[in-house]
Specification:
heterodimer; A: six-stranded mixed beta sheet; six-stranded mixed beta sheet; 16 helices; 15% strand; elongated; B: six-stranded mixed beta sheet
Chain lengths: 413, 537
């Protein structure tokens, strides 16, 4: 019996004092940013990438609420300060809350919406906004595991919230990180050049998330041991970085293509966005100007019957229907490229008032036709080229656009 | 057993045609390319028996699919068989590829497991695909996870169908795509819909089939062919272009050399519509060709980093990624200094905007107006220093025009938008637009309160009531719901008040819509109404 007890005690103490070789804890960072108001991929051409529903689905799948998962959003939720931008910013903040976002950089674009909106977004996001660059910002930093996450901006807008110079903001954050024995991660509202300079000046920074145009790079940038990463623009992809508290080690770009199933909660929030833009009559509030008068495509048919018949068979003649099917037919972001003359007091209002101006019509490309239809010789139309299409067929909305191929579909004399 | 109707369109080869060295298409996968070379090596030495054996490692028609459903729960078996049938039909309808289910000895074996180990992203892998060159084994074995995603949940029929369609693409020789939206791209995330077979995938699979048919004929007729060993060499691994003005043409050439002994097939695709590559279909052995790439600089300003994916039939490098960087200097910037929202009292309001152009820009203003408000706009040439926060540039000498705008105070109280519209003589940027925001009278900010999706517990929010141009007093606050409370506090002086709003909790689930009414001492705006909305769960 004594031997057994002794053996048990030896095992216990042996276990207690034996050297432990536990692998260091690994962390996963899911990084997004620069949505710039792109809540959903524009559906003109399939397949389109991006959108809040896919982004939230990916974040949720890769481990929202996990203790070792850190969800970072580098701000730039919207690109303007209109009522539509306000609604978008609220919906984006609310969607990020459903995956327990760790930190959102409060950048110039959010500050530009005003203090009341910042407070609303802060509440909807689950108190996730951070910035060390603006006095009175909700929180100078966020703590998560061994990391201190700080939002900083390389310049400030003209607002009542005083801008703190970048070097002061960063040095203050690094001092706090040192005091708390944390590794610092910067969410930077600024370009790669600024990120590189910061990484060279402050080599103790673990990672800098910066702002960039275009797609995310297929490899991370590195200055010393500091990783420089950017999710690219318009929320079309998400970055996944994994590593220990000592160093980041793995990097992947996740493309938000149609393969990703929409997230249910983000889908509900997006549905509310569509409801709100209709309810608040944002389409009716678009500023319109006095321009040359629009008359509608039917007015062209008497002289250009062949062209009119050809037009009726094209996708242009059903352009508004595609928006109606997606519930985007009162969305100011979308409608201008699906109707005639949205910017004009004589342009499209709605199907009831201006049915002849619904869809992409003759005047969408050729310009307002009232004068031409009254006196074609005095007001002749110019021949159009590729640039006439480029207003709507942009790389973002129509990535597969090829003038020769598309022209074949609408060609007329 | 499923038998999809036969179509021999892909197999039709003119019997009398001379047998020529086949060229493996760019965009085919490494396994296919290596299998072709193995057959050709035997043909080169005249070992037709070995060549015939090696043909077994190439895709053949009809595809025999061996379905191992032993691990599938009984209630799911019919669903899985239906997914296999639909995936086969999808390929058959588009590419006339026939697929037949066989109990054993399949070219493509599809089996299932309860859950696969985690893939690259840390999620349970949706499927794993393994090629084999052993004639005794299926050429491709695909294992599909019956549970996937996070939280782990049963794979949906669409997801199983997508995985099988992807496996058929791989079997036919199509390489895994880097671009979402087609069956050759796959992900471990849960997918909502069916992913289509694209024209590009059809073309590659057809060309792969042509190669197989040619090799079969060469073996049958004992025709010697040399082993095709193209070798791609790209002079540059990364393209950094000089700065260019927005809208100006920008182009570059990518030099591709074939250091191998047979033609190199090429296919170059960009990761965005702003790169427009034109590549020759082939580069002959020992020759060099140019891939001409046009950069669309219209849509973007600032630093642009995009990617070109160069696909070839070099089995060592079937796909090479080339990063392309360029700085696009903005052609113009329309900047309005000062607060983002113009305060408007009863008097007219003036403001200035600056439209400056990039160095070397050939552009003139023809006219300027403001839509949405009665206004006058004067245009005058301007030169000075100005920052560009959008591109992170500090103060810099700029040249352009100053727009002096005078607005009539015609808006009703509230926030309103207007647009600066500048017409120019530029062939692309004919119209330049900028937004203006106005605030007139006493305004609630935000104009409606949105609480989002909330629990039945208490929730708090706030709005500001503001008129910076003139002080006012709040005399009373009312709400139209017993669940809604609101209290106002002055922020600093009598030009702005903070109204704290509380939804007390206990309201019925569903949509909540309430109203807070703020009464003021201004007889022209005695009441300000703010709608409060939430979804109670």
């Amino acid at each position: 019996m004594k031997l057994l007890l002794l053996g048990g005690a030896l095992l216990f103490f042996g276990g207690l004092f034996a050297p432990k070789h536990r692998a260091p804890e690994r962390y996963t960072f899911l990084i997004s940013g620069s949505a710039e108001g792109n809540l959903a991929p524009c559906g003109c051409t399939k397949p389109m990438s991006g959108g809040i529903k896919r982004k939230i689905a990916v974040i949720r799948a890769l481990g929202s609420k996990g203790k070792d998962v850190i969800i970072l959003e580098n701000g730039g939720l919207v690109s303007g300060s209109s009522r539509q931008d306000e609604i978008k910013a609220e919906i984006l903040s609310e969607s990020l809350r459903t995956v327990s976002v760790t930190a959102i950089n409060l950048t110039r674009s959010e500050i530009g919406l005003g203090p009341a909106m910042v407070e609303s977004m802060q509440r909807l996001s689950g108190e996730a906004f951070t910035s060390a660059s603006f006095e009175g910002a909700p929180a100078p930093h966020k703590l998560s595991g061994p990391f201190l996450i700080v939002g900083v901006s390389d310049s400030g807008p003209e607002t009542s919230q005083k801008y703190i110079p970048l070097s002061s903001a960063v040095e203050g954050a690094l001092a706090t990180a040192k005091e708390l024995n944390k590794r610092s991660i910067l969410l930077l509202d600024g370009p790669i050049k600024t990120a590189e300079t910061l990484a060279r000046t402050y080599p103790e920074i673990y990672m800098i998330v910066f702002r960039s145009t275009g797609a995310a790079a297929s490899e991370p940038g590195r200055v010393g041991s500091t990783w420089l990463v950017s999710p690219g623009e318009k929320a079309k992809q998400l970055i996944q970085v994994t590593g220990t508290a000592k160093t980041a080690s793995k990097y992947s770009v996740i493309k938000l293509g149609p393969e990703v199933q929409d997230d249910e909660a983000a889908g509900r929030a997006y549905g509310r966005y569509l409801d709100r833009i209709v309810d608040e009559k944002l389409f009716e509030r678009i500023p319109r100007g006095k321009t040359a008068e629009y008359v509608g495509s039917k007015a062209c048919a008497s002289c250009h019957a062949g062209a009119y018949e050809k037009w009726k068979q094209t996708g242009h003649a059903h352009a508004l229907k595609t928006l109606e099917l997606d519930r985007h037919d009162r969305d100011p972001d979308c409608v201008s490229c699906h109707v005639v003359g949205m910017e004009s007091l004589s342009g499209f209002m709605n199907r009831e008032k201006t049915p002849e101006l619904a869809d992409v019509g003759c005047e969408s490309c050729h310009g307002a036709g009232q004068k031409h239809s009254a006196d074609p010789k005095a007001y002749p139309f110019q021949k159009l080229g590729e640039t006439a299409c480029a207003t709507c067929h942009t790389p973002d909305t129509s990535p597969n656009f090829d003038f020769k191929t598309y022209w074949e579909k609408v060609i007329h004399n | 057993m499923i038998t999809v109707a036969l179509s021999l369109a892909l197999l039709s080869v003119q019997k009398e045609a001379p047998i020529r060295q086949p060229i493996v298409p760019a965009g085919s996968n490494r396994s296919f390319q290596e299998a072709v070379i193995a057959v050709e090596e035997s043909l080169q030495t005249g070992d037709f028996v070995e060549a015939k054996k090696r043909l077994a490692a190439l895709p053949t028609h009809p595809i025999k699919i061996e379905l191992d459903d032993s691990k599938i729960p009984t209630e799911m078996k019919a669903t899985v068989r239906e997914a296999v049938r639909k995936a086969s039909i999808m390929w058959q309808q588009n590419a006339a590829v026939e697929a037949t289910l066989v109990p054993k000895g399949g070219h493509l074996k599809i089996s299932f497991d309860k859950q696969l180990p985690n893939g690259e992203l840390g999620l349970p892998a949706g499927a794993g695909n393994l090629f084999s060159s052993d004639p005794a084994e299926p050429r491709l074995t695909t294992v599909i996870g019956l549970n996937r995603g996070n939280p782990v949940s049963p794979a949906m029929p669409n997801e199983i169908q997508n995985e099988i369609a992807h496996a058929i693409a791989l079997y036919l020789g199509v390489d895994r795509s880097l671009r979402p939206g087609s069956v050759s791209f796959r992900t471990d995330f849960s997918a909502s819909g069916l992913i289509p077979v694209t024209a590009r995938e059809l073309l590659i699979s057809k060309k792969c089939n042509d190669v197989v048919v040619t090799l079969q004929q060469a073996v049958e007729k004992k025709v010697k062919l040399s082993a095709a060993k193209p070798k791609i060499f790209l002079e540059v691994k990364e393209v950094t272009l000089p700065s260019v003005l927005q809208g100006e043409p920008q182009a570059f050439d990518l030099q591709v050399t074939n250091n191998g002994k047979s033609p190199l097939s090429l296919f170059v695709e960009p990761d965005c519509g702003c790169l427009d590559p034109f590549a020759p279909a082939f580069v002959e052995a020992g020759e060099t060709a140019l891939v001409k790439v046009r950069v669309n600089t219209v849509e973007f300003a600032g630093h642009l980093k995009k990617w070109l994916y160069v696909h070839s039939n070099d089995p060592e490098f079937p796909s090479i990624d080339i990063p392309v960087s360029v700085n696009i200097d903005p052609l113009f910037q329309l900047v309005r200094p000062g607060p983002s929202i113009l305060q408007m009292g009863d008097e007219n309001v003036s403001a200035e905007a600056f439209l400056w152009f990039g160095e070397g820009a050939k552009i003139k203003i023809l006219d300027a107006r403001v839509d949405g408000i009665t206004s006058q706009v004067e245009i005058e040439p301007w030169e000075g220093e100005m920052a560009d926060p959008a591109l992170g540039q500090g103060p810099h000498p700029r040249k352009g025009y100053k727009l002096k705008m005078l607005f009539q105070s015609t808006f009703i109280p509230g926030r309103s938008m207007a647009s600066i519209v500048v017409t120019t003589d530029h062939p692309i940027f004919k119209t330049i637009r900028g937004n203006l925001a106005f605030q007139r009278g006493i305004v609630a900010l935000p104009e409606r309160l949105y609480l989002g999706e909330i629990e039945r517990a208490a929730n708090r929010s706030m709005f500001l009531v503001s008129r910076p141009s003139k002080g006012f007093k709040i005399t009373k606050i009312e709400t139209n719901s017993p669940f809604l409370k609101a209290v106002a506090y002055p922020v600093s002086d009598d030009t702005e008040y903070r109204v704290n709003v509380e939804l007390t909790g206990g309201q019925d689930p569903g949509q909540f819509s309430g109203m807070v009414t703020v009464f003021t001492d201004d007889p022209t705006q005695p009441r300000i109404e703010v709608q409060v909305g939430a979804i109670v769960r």
